[in-house]
Amino acid sequence: MRRPTLDETPLAVLPRTTGWPTIQEPPLRLRVDPEPDDSGRRRIRLHGEFDAGSVDLVCAAVDHVLRSGRDVVVDLGAVEFCDASAARALLACAHQAAAARRTVAVANPRPFQRRLLTMLRVDEVVTIEGP
């Protein structure tokens, strides 16, 4: 027996929904400032959760800025969560920048982020700016 297609199914038979579908925001959003700052660096502003699920996005953005010949500042001011994978990604970005004779800095870390970066000794490789 052939099943009816959606076009052939009477509306009364269609399953009812319980409301509007929810749209979930991505765990991390980022924005690369279009213009360099006064010192010639490009700022990448992160917002949300910087973890294993988003490190590739951040590394790709850093790579994009480095290819333009600019130093990079990763702004963590609006990051609500980060973990050791984020710290490892920042280290990898710093090594990539050093190979291109550029630098990566971290700006505006929250206290827990600064503690994490210090405990994992990221601050020995990456300059940390701000509070």
From TrEMBL:
This is Anti-anti-sigma factor. Signal peptide: none annotated. Residues 16-40 are annotated as: Disordered. Gene3D superfamilies: STAS domain. Pfam families: STAS_2 (PF13466). InterPro entries: MlaB-like_STAS, STAS_dom, STAS_dom_sf. Residues 44-131 form the STAS domain. Residues 28-40 have a biased composition (Basic and acidic residues). It comes from Kineococcus aurantiacus.
